[in-house]
Amino acid sequence: METDTDTISSRISPTCPPETQRVLTAAWSHDLTAVKKLLDTPGRASVQDPTTGETPLHAAIRACGPAPEAEGGEEEEEGLADLEAAKKVVYELLLWGGIWNDVDDRNETPGCVARRLGRGELYNLCVEAGVRAEMLFGLMGGYEELESVDGEDEEEDEEGEGGVEVVDMDVENPEMVVVGEDGEEAPELVGGEVNGKGGSVETVPAEGEEGLEAEQEEEEEDVEEPRFKRPKEDTEADVNFEAYLRSKLTYTDGKLVDDDGNGVMMAWETDIMRRSVNALLPGKQPGKRILNIGFGMGIIDTMFAETQPAVHHVIEAHPGVWEHISSPGSKFGSAWEESAPKPGAFKIHKGKWQEVCQQLVLQGQTYDAIYFDTFGEDYSQLRMFFTELIPSLLDGQGRFGFFNGLGADRAICYDVYTKVAELHLTDAGLDVDWDVIDVDMSHLAEAGKGEWEGVKRRYWTLDKYRLPTCTFLG
């Protein structure tokens, strides 16, 4: 829906520098010729109004206004012509350095604006740009961590069950590489572990054709140089995995939080866990071999145990969780381990999964179902798990799943990382089936209220969840 503040006078402030104002105005007018002439200096495509945070990408998309209902006639034809002009300008801006996930003063990315206005084609261009940027930077050998923010609620698009359709991209096509200048602002993606809780989903705008070589040299010289400033409303530090392991955990009714108030696991995830078990163990046949990484509150392990598995291994790194597991009344203490059909079949492995999994591989352990739900780790760790360890740990007919909270602070980030994860899973020899399920947002809609009471960050804001079930290709 367009607001009375979606006007050129409200988005390009009187104090905006003349050069920035010219680029923004040309983008708003969808004047491709003027835009091309102005993009003669590095960084011009990603300039921002100092007051509103408006970028040329924001301006080009916002100027289209809300998508009208098809009524035919000259008015519709004019709207289609303007949309085509906008697409060409957006494409050009992305080619020359427009950042797909830059935020304005309302914490909206260009894609967020396109989604709000119902401009699906422009939204898809932003998603494609995000995927290209993530894939290219991944090929360059690294990711840049971005921290969690509590994004604005976004309604799921009405086109299909999973939101706006994301058009497949060709990573070999050099013409749509997203360009980015060091130091430019970008919104941070909610990610925990890799699951959207506590940690970071990594992202960075990739350099364009002329900047790619320089970027690689720069990475070699100083890999620690920061690329983004934090969004204005988020000044808190990232949840670091090592710091998390040193933190004190508190189990309360319906949630597990660390001593900084970060939600490690919460009861609202129960339905997602139940559906994950159903997907990983169709028919819940007994006698299966199960590996779960990340015990937390024990929600999914309780469900796994009810299927009467032949092998049930759990990897947990936090000493506070070990203490909870060993406490009186725990379902997974020493008595549970001793009840196994054979020695070692039921076991809590204490330590980091990166180390424990190597031991399991050496032991020749394989599993029918593997689930991954850790905390405070970034996406690169999940990618490493399914690239380097799944081939050795998962039975040829087995199934793998993970808590998919990648970029779950806003729809565009979730769409980008769904596609990125799918591409990386395919590269690892895995096929992924996405089951789109509803999330009851009645108690999750507001930060600090409902399920989020007492929790510092709202790591989930979407009303749809894409549940992944992975199997080997072929």
From TrEMBL:
<dbReference type="GO" id="GO:0019702">
    <property type="term" value="F:protein arginine N5-methyltransferase activity"/>
</dbReference>
<dbReference type="GO" id="GO:0005634">
    <property type="term" value="C:nucleus"/>
</dbReference>
<dbReference type="InterPro" id="IPR051038">
    <property type="entry name" value="RMT2/GAMT_Mtase"/>
</dbReference>
<comment type="function">
    <text>S-adenosyl-L-methionine-dependent protein-arginine N-methyltransferase that methylates the delta-nitrogen atom of arginine residues to form N5-methylarginine (type IV) in target proteins. Monomethylates ribosomal protein L12.</text>
</comment>
<dbReference type="GO" id="GO:0032259">
    <property type="term" value="P:methylation"/>
</dbReference>
<keyword id="KW-0949">S-adenosyl-L-methionine</keyword>
<comment type="similarity">
    <text>Belongs to the class I-like SAM-binding methyltransferase superfamily. RMT2 methyltransferase family.</text>
</comment>
<comment type="subunit">
    <text>Monomer.</text>
</comment>
<dbReference type="GO" id="GO:0005737">
    <property type="term" value="C:cytoplasm"/>
</dbReference>
<dbReference type="InterPro" id="IPR036770">
    <property type="entry name" value="Ankyrin_rpt-contain_sf"/>
</dbReference>
<keyword id="KW-0489">Methyltransferase</keyword>
<feature type="compositionally biased region" description="Basic and acidic residues">
    <location>
        <begin position="225"/>
        <end position="234"/>
    </location>
</feature>
<keyword id="KW-0808">Transferase</keyword>
<keyword id="KW-0539">Nucleus</keyword>
<protein>
    <recommendedName>
        <fullName>Arginine N-methyltransferase 2</fullName>
        <ecNumber>2.1.1.-</ecNumber>
    </recommendedName>
</protein>
<dbReference type="InterPro" id="IPR026480">
    <property type="entry name" value="RMT2_dom"/>
</dbReference>
<feature type="region of interest" description="Disordered">
    <location>
        <begin position="187"/>
        <end position="235"/>
    </location>
</feature>
<dbReference type="InterPro" id="IPR017408">
    <property type="entry name" value="Arginine_N-MeTrfase_2"/>
</dbReference>
<keyword id="KW-0963">Cytoplasm</keyword>
<dbReference type="InterPro" id="IPR029063">
    <property type="entry name" value="SAM-dependent_MTases_sf"/>
</dbReference>
<feature type="compositionally biased region" description="Acidic residues">
    <location>
        <begin position="207"/>
        <end position="224"/>
    </location>
</feature>
<feature type="domain" description="RMT2">
    <location>
        <begin position="235"/>
        <end position="474"/>
    </location>
</feature>
